[in-house]
Each structure stands twice: as C-alpha cells, then as structure tokens.
Structure to design on (791 residues):
C-alpha cells in the first residue's frame, strides 16, 4: 500500500476537519432551524384591490403592496435578469455557492469592509422568510444550513417563485408584480428588457438605486446587469444594445383619490365582515359601485360650498410669522405644493375647491396685499372682510387689518387667480344614492376627509329641522288628507307643565293664515305643521316613523313635527328613499368580494333590484340580498313626491330648479341657523346635504338650507345628471288630476288667477276643501277647525 505524501495528508486532514466541522455545525443548528411549513404553504400578505363594475381599478388597501404572480406568468427575460444580477449559477449550486463565498471574503478583506455579498437566491429566501436581518456569523451559518434544507425540499423553480414574489423592491412594492405596477404601471408581460433589468437592479439597494431617486446610479447598475446577461448568454448582444439605449423612465405612482368617505365606508363594511387584517393582507378582489367623476364632483361641491359659507363669516385673526422663520416656512409650503399631489397648485392654477397658505409680504397703499405661497407671488385687491372682535392683547396689538408677516389662506377662483379665504370653521357632508341601481353614488364625510376620519355622513347626529317635515306630510296623505286641504298657519302658545311656555314660530316670524297642505310644505310653515301633527296624533305619527330607517325612538312631543330630534345624514337620506319609492332598502356600497383564489365570499344586491331573492330562499335569507319592503303605498309616495316637487318649483328650494329637470325635495334649517340641510331627488338620483359646525353654533342668520346646503346639492347633481335623460315623476294607478286654485285649494273656475294641476288619490273629496271653518263631515275642512291646545 502506497503511503500518502505529507501534503496529501495535510489536505486529507483539512478536508476531514472541514467535514467534521460541517457535521458538528449541522448537529448544533439542526434543532434550532425553523420548520419549512411557512413556505410550503406560502400565503404572503397581498394587496386588496377595488374595481368598479366597469373593471376600472379605483383603489387599494394593503400593509404590503404585493401582487402574487404564478411562476409560469413571470416572463423568462425577467427571471434571467434577476439571475444575472443576484445568482447566475442558481440552477447549478445546492443552495450555497462556495466559490462565491471565497470570492466575497477576499474582496471584503482587500477592501477592509463589506463590499460584496455572497448570498445565493436560496439564502436570501431563507433570510427573508425565517431569519432576522442582523449581521452576525451565527445568523449567516444558520442561513446556509437553512438554504441547503430548502434546496432539498423544493425545486429551483419553486424557490425562484418565492424569491420573486416576496422580495422588497422599493417604492412600497413587494415582489415583481407589484414593482412592475408601481414603477411602470405595467403588468409583467408588458415589461421591456431594460425595465426587467432595472427591476433586477433594485434588491441590492432600493433606496439608492431606484430610478426615480438616482437615475444616474440606477442606469449604471441596470446597464451592468444587461452586460452580465449578454456575457452569460441570457440575452443576445442586439437586444442588450437596444436595452442600454433605452432611456430611464419611471411612471408616476398610480394616482388614486380613494382615501375618502366612500373608501372609508367600503373599508368599514369589509372590516366588519372579514376583519381588518384580512382586508389589508389577504388580497381580496372587491367590486364596488364607485364612480370617480361623481365622487370628485361631490367632494369639490362640498368644499366650494363650505368655502362660500366661510366667506360670509367674520374674519379670524391670522397667525403672525416671525421674520426669522419666514424663509423656512416658504420652503416648507413650496415642498408641500410639489409633493402632495397638488399639480394645479404647483402650476399656479388652483381649482375653486383648493385652498393653500401664503405669507403677506406687503400691504399695498390701496389696502391690497402682495402674498407669497412659496412658489408664486399673488396680488390681492383690497378686501372688505369684517373681522371678529379682538379677544386678547395680541389681537388688539395686531389691529383689525392685515400686516406683513401674516399667514393667510388663498382659494382658487378657477380662472388662474385667487381670492382671500380662511380655514373653514364649518363642515359639510353629502350622501348620494342611485335610485335605479340601488347603489351608493357618492359620499363626502367632511371638508377634507381622509380614511378613518370622523365621517359626518353616519357619525354626526344633528337636528334635521324642516327637512324632517315630509315624513309628517306623507303620513297625513296616507291617512286620507289631501294636498288641497286647508291648514291654519297662525300663532300657537303651549303651556308645558313644569316648564316654560313654548311659542313656536316661523322663519322671520311671518304667518300666512289659512294655507293649503301643499303650500305649508312648499314654504315650510311651522305652525301649520304643528297643527297637522295635532290632527294626526303623535301616537299615529310614531307608528308611521317606525317604518322608516331611523335607528332611534322619537319623543312624544309636538316638536318632532319641526325636526327637533337628531338623526344622521345617512339615516335621513335613506329615509327619503322611502318617500321617493315607497320601498325601504339599503343602498349597496360593496357588490362582490372574492378571495385570493377567486372564490366568491360575498355578494350584495340592493333590495329594489333583488329579483332573484324572491325566487331563491337561500338568497332571500341573506341580509345582503334582502328584497325591499314596501312601507308606503305607491299613491302616497307619488303624492308626497309631487308636493315636494312644488318645494323646488316655487317654494323654499326654488334655486334647485336650475338643475333643469323635475326634482322633489325639502330644505331644512334649525334654530339660529346651526344646521342647514337640503334633501332632494330626481327619478334617477337622491342626494342629501348637511352643513354646520362640529360644535353646534350659529353659522349666521342668512345660512338657511336654501342658502348654505342647496348650492352644494345643485353643483354635485348637475355633474351626476350630465349624461342622463330628463325623466318625469310618473303617477301610478289610483291618482287623478284636478285643476284647483293654488291658494284656496278649491276647484279652479273661469276667474281663478293661479290655477294648478293637483294630484289626488282617486275618490278624495275636493269640493269645499278650501273652507277652513267648515264643520267635520260637511266636505269643508273637517279637522282643520282652529283649536288652541296646551300640553
């Protein structure tokens, strides 16, 4: 037997020692290595995506923005780009590349620091899924053993699939599917070779090599990867040269305004059904009736309307900026205009609903102001705004006029110029329903609402004022009263036991005497409404209100005739659905939910459209598929609609006639103009609007429902109806038309000055309806006899 030479013995001993070391380390770490179930059952956090029924992506919810892409759908050129950049021998090594480890060690020793990594793609999978990011020898050894185990349990394609879907690539993107979308607004199959190489350059340092952050360094790294692809035979030279010549381009992050009250309603609905964590991490696919144009128009209408109200408030003392802080403040404002999605502001073309701060640089001799917003200088004419009274010494020293150094607020005028405004002290909300589709059309929760803010649509409970009266009048019409009967609009005084005297009044303390029921609602006459409630009876009215979707009990008081009990905008709007259609149903905001595998978890169809529900008992018992419930007969619904149409044709809501199509509605104003409402609908769309302060205080004597809320409704509804045909309110069977005198309610004759075609339920007595003093049963007015009733 030939003896081994000394060098051979040394080599053999070194190999044996290395084997023993590896075996020892394997024994030592084997017990502490994690189970591979996490990647065997790979279920990473995925982005939940919201589409409208037209298939347009309108919004996303996510903790990690990841779009899971099956391996076979990841283009070969993208896979090869990552192999060239990260691990060119991936398909040849067992999870660890010894030659790369030695090369990296030598490079790092020569450089005196860490300049080259040695991790294979499999090691990166091990680290990203199971290990901490700490840089220690122990962690590195565990990573290598774990990589080897992964290689034994999974195929190379499976490992590469995990890597490409899990890795963070900057710009909030996890995985290549998300990165393609957030960098280029493309799907993977749409990427060019240059774009594939660019994405492959990012794992090394997403924060410094991202093309939108450092185009020069990003291009250099991209081109180096393209040369590596050419060297390894992953791409031919012509394709590489063409890719290198391709300029660096990055798409703007997909813009979405899906951070509003509509999004919040969808998010809340999904979270209550499936849990917030599932909504943000399980990659649900949602279909929602989101109309971006209607939503944006509604948000702008609310903002413009609130700012119009603010322009009629007293001017509050502005913040004064010290000279030493002004330059810094201007830079801060300039950065905000450039980076916060305010493209119109950055270009100096603000919309009418946009506001932004500015610094008074000079007060001109004529009282005008020269101001600076950080990017632009504006010159404002002299303002005649009345100021609030000074409340402290600082305000007294300032004086009730502007001075250089004041921070003011500017509002766009829509024509490239601006006006002076101030931060709103008033809030507004809007809720709109598509009456034909049964879906939510728009939802505005406040002046500047963001996801999870206080939503004034369904969280703010306020008195509705006269906007509540139609429920009383609908009840009266249902009980046999007619639009032509006479009510007395004269003063009433009530002595309330143990309390002060209640003396209800009308707006401006004006009383009209005998008026028709129609006139009483058209002109919102309080005393006539109280007398109508007396006639109906509080108990009967309470029973009637139980049919409407109000989530509360109403007190046994005559004040409910005037809307003194608090409700939310969502409750009031959905109750108006009953007035408009006679049916009670819940508008749908989430139509369908599918899980990450495409299985349907939930479907909703509004009750007024749920035809299958009546035939399928399984669907019928699902709350989301519950058929509508008729709670007002068709004749009553039409009669109250027809009377409310008069509110707009010639009553307190006359300004809404500018919509140019039939509409029915009601204004609402509470005492001291604390709350203002306008609720109205066409045959196609119902919209409710509320404005007021979060802390209930007067907005000023002129801020009625017609002045403060109606313009918002008109602005939003004009956009919503832009492409809709003009439709009429169609009378159902059981309605007849009679021409009457609008003032007296009597049948019209040859000398009638103001005739009107009035709708009546068939069989309703009309003759003599105008006599308020007739005794019951004589066809005159029956229960309209004047009685001064105390409580």
């Amino acid at each position: 037997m030939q003896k081994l030479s000394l060098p051979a013995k040394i080599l053999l001993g070194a190999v044996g020692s290395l084997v023993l070391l590896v075996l020892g380390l394997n024994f030592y770490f084997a017990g502490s290595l994690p189970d591979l179930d996490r990647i065997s059952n790979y279920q990473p956090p995925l982005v939940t995506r919201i589409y409208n029924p037209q298939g347009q992506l309108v919004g996303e919810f996510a903790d990690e923005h990841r779009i899971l892409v099956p391996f076979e759908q990841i283009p070969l050129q993208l896979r090869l780009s990552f192999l060239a950049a990260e691990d060119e021998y991936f398909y040849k090594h067992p999870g660890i590349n010894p030659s790369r480890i030695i090369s990296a060690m030598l490079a790092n020793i020569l450089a005196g620091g860490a300049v080259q990594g040695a991790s294979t793609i499999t090691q990166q999978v091990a680290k990203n899924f199971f290990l901490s990011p700490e840089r220690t020898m122990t962690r590195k050894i565990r990573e290598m053993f774990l990589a080897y185990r992964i290689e034994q349990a999974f195929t190379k394609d499976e490992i590469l699939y995990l890597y490409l879907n899990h890795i963070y690539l900057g710009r909030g993107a996890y995985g290549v599917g998300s990165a393609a979308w957030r960098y280029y607004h493309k799907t993977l199959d749409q990427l060019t070779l240059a774009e594939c190489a660019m994405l492959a350059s990012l794992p090394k340092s997403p924060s410094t090599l991202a093309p939108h952050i450092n185009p020069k360094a990003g291009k250099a790294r991209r081109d180096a990867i393209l040369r590596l692809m050419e060297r390894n035979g992953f791409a031919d030279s012509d394709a590489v040269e063409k890719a290198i010549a391709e300029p660096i381009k990055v798409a703007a992050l997909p813009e979405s305004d899906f951070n509003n009250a509509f999004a919040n309603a969808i998010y809340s609905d999904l979270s209550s059904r499936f849990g917030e964590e599932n909504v943000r991490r399980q990659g649900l696919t949602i279909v929602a009736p989101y109309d971006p144009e209607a939503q944006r128009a509604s948000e702008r209408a609310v903002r413009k309307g609130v700012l119009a109200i603010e322009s009629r408030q007293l001017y509050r003392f502005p913040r004064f900026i010290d000279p030493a802080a002004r330059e810094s403040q201007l830079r801060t404002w300039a950065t905000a205009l450039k980076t916060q999605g305010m493209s119109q502001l950055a270009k100096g073309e603000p919309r009418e609903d946009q506001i932004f701060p500015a610094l008074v640089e000079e007060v001109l001799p004529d009282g005008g102001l020269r101001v600076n917003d950080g990017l632009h200088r504006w010159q404002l004419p002299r303002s005649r705004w009345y100021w609030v009274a000074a409340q402290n010494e600082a305000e007294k020293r300032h004086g009730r006029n502007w001075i250089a150094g004041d921070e003011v607020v500017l509002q766009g005028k829509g024509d490239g110029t601006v006006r002076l405004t101030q931060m709103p002290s008033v809030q507004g909300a809007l809720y709109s329903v598509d009456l034909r589709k049964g879906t939510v059309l728009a939802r505005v929760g406040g002046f500047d609402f963001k996801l999870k803010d206080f939503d004034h649509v369904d969280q703010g409970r306020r008195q509705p004022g006269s906007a509540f009266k139609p429920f009383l009048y609908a009840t009266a019409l249902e009980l046999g009263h007619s639009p032509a009967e006479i009510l007395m609009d004269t003063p009433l005084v009530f002595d309330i036991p143990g309390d002060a005297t209640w003396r209800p009044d009308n707006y401006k303390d004006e009383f009209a005497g005998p008026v028709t029921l129609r006139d009483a609602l058209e002109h919102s006459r309080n005393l006539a409404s109280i007398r109508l409630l007396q006639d109906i009876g509080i108990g009967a009215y309470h029973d009637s209100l139980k049919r409407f979707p109000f989530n509360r009990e109403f007190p046994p008081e005559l004040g409910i005739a005037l809307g003194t009990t608090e409700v939310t905008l969502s409750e009031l709007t959905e109750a108006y659905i009953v007035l408009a259609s006679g049916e009670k149903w819940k508008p749908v905001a989430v139509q369908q939910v599918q899980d990450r595998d495409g299985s349907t978890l939930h479907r909703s169809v509004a009750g007024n459209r749920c035809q299958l529900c009546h035939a399928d008992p399984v669907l019928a018992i699902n709350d989301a598929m519950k058929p509508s419930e008729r709670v007002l007969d068709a004749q009553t619904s039409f009669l109250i609609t027809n009377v409310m149409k008069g509110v707009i044709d010639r009553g307190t809501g006359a300004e809404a006639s500018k919509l140019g199509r039939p509409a029915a509605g009601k204004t609402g104003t509470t005492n001291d103009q604390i709350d203002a409402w306008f609720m109205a609908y066409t045959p196609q769309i119902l919209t409710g609007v509320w404005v007021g302060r979060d802390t209930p205080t007067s907005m000023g004597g002129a801020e009625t429902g017609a002045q403060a809320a109606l313009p918002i409704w008109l602005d939003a509804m004009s956009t919503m109806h832009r492409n809709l045909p003009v439709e009429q309110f169609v009378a159902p069977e059981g309605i007849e038309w009679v021409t009457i005198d609008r003032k007296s309610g009597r049948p019209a004759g040859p000398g009638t000055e103001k005739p009107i075609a009035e709708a009546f339920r068939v069989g309703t007595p009309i003759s003599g309806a105008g006599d308020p003093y007739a005794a019951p049963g004589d066809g005159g007015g029956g229960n309209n006899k004047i009685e001064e009733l105390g409580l």
Observations:
- Confidence is low (pLDDT under 50) at residues 15-25, 111-116, 772-791.
- DSSP finds 27 helices and 27 strands in the chain.
- The longest strand covers residues 355-363.
- The longest helix spans residues 6-30.
